[in-house]
Description:
This protein is mainly α and 188 residues long. 61% of the residues lie in helices and 6% in strands. The chain has two domains: 1-35, no CATH class; 46-152, no CATH class. It has four helices and two strands; from the N terminus they run ββαααα. α1 (52-68) runs antiparallel to α2 and α2 packs antiparallel against α3. The longest helix has 47 residues, at 76-122. The two termini are 32 Å apart. The relative contact order is 0.08. It comes from Micrurus lemniscatus lemniscatus.
Amino acid sequence: xxxxxxxxxxFNIQDIDIGTxxxxxxxxxxxxxxxxxxxxxxxxxxxxxxxxxxxSKMEKELTFFFKENKKEDTSLQNLxxxxxxxxxxxxxxxxxxxxxxKKKTSNLLEEExxxxxxxxxxxxxxxxxxxxMEITKHKMGLLEKEELAQxxxxxxxxxxxxxxxxxxxxxxxxxxxxxxKKINCLIN
Length: 188
């Protein structure tokens, strides 16, 4: 498995890595491009509302918030706005920690799979290694499915928001298409 890249776009590449073959016979190759990521608008991840640890954390934070900010001291509208901002901060913090944990487990599973792959190359007769590889592959698949479900939800949300604004959606699509046709350099 390899990547063929022209010398003109080589300076745009930050890193290239060969991944593990969890889906097919070939190993995927990840190419990381340099550049700035567009910051997306924050939306609530509904998946965390089902987690007990999140519920208990929010309950603790809200009781602390309402204990510190009494209704007599401020107006009801001001209290509501500050509570929303505080809640959003707590949710962002919780989600960030949760995503870091997910990334760690994903990296650990990938390293485990690579280690088992090398071990299987040394001892191809051992069936225990194959079963461990299958279990690890299954765990990786579950994490990927959860991430994919979140991405599908956000895409559906974007299409729902732009449903009555076709001009906005079409201009976004045209802008993406123009970026794909961008010429980096001309040859004499």
